[in-house]
Design a protein that fits this description.
The chain is an alpha+beta fold. It is built from six helices and eleven strands. The longest helix has 13 residues.
Length: 247
């Protein structure tokens, strides 16, 4: 099933991957030239909550142990290409932009535990709405590493107040894909001014009796690319993940 999904993305299907391949891990992608790879690996090691590393490729390799036969240049629904910290294009196929010295990092994504929330009877609003998860840049700075620095990015899901403890417990069982939330309640505590204006993804309805709950997000390395002026990078477009074969 997951191989069939990747083939659809390779053929040009573009859509967010939330709700797809329930029970399997999804991954964020950040690929940088080899001379930036050590800094990125150290950045992830120092910031494991937003950057839980599932796999790192050899320089020039476009394969991963997370999905046999997959091609990291083509098998995500949408990619971003960055130059000098600026987004220059979004493309459904990154083959033309990919360089021979690229090192690819696959970082766990919170979409991976959403099936467990749904199974527990907790509505995941962006899946219900058929939209992308809302993501926000925060005022919390990650721990710098080498030439990399930047702020924490979070994803938000509205949770009924009486189910917040359940959502924390359930997601906490999945540390490889961000684990438990980093913040519950008032977004001002993260420096987020307006939940209706996410920096990435789509806004979602917060209904009476619901509390905004925030998880560390694998878009955090993209914030570091922007803040640090990384000369060249290729990433997933927020919400458009690599679907793995790993439960």
């Amino acid at each position: 099933m997951n191989e069939a999904l990747r083939k659809q993305f390779r053929a040009g299907l573009v859509r967010p991957t939330a709700g797809l391949a329930p029970g399997f891990a999804q991954a964020n992608l950040i690929a940088v030239p080899r001379d930036w790879a050590w800094d990125m690996l150290l950045y992830a090691q120092r910031n494991p909550k937003p950057c839980p590393v599932l796999d790192v490729s050899d320089a020039g390799s476009v394969t991963t142990v997370l999905a046999a036969g997959a091609d990291l240049r083509t098998d995500l629904p949408l990619y971003r290409v960055w130059r000098d910290g600026e987004l220059v294009e979004e493309v459904p196929d990154a083959t033309a932009a990919w360089r021979d010295d690229m090192v690819a990092f696959l970082i766990g994504c919170s979409f991976s535990f959403e099936a467990a929330l749904v199974e527990a009877g907790i509505d995941v609003r962006h899946i219900t709405a058929g939209s992308n998860v809302p993501m926000y840049r925060t005022a919390r700075q990650c721990r710098p590493a080498g030439r990399l620095h930047g702020e924490l990015v979070v994803s938000m899901r509205p949770i009924p107040a009486d189910r917040v403890a359940d959502a924390v417990t359930i997601s906490g069982r999945f540390p490889e894909v961000h684990g438990a939330p980093v913040h519950v309640g008032d977004p001002a505590g993260l420096g987020v001014a307006d939940l209706d204006r996410p920096d990435f993804g789509d806004p979602v309805e917060i209904r009476p009796g619901e509390v905004p709950v925030f998880w560390a997000c694998g878009v955090t390395p993209q914030a570091a690319v922007m803040a640090s002026g990384v000369p060249f990078a290729i990433t997933h477009a927020p919400g458009h993940m690599f679907v793995t074969d790993v439960p």
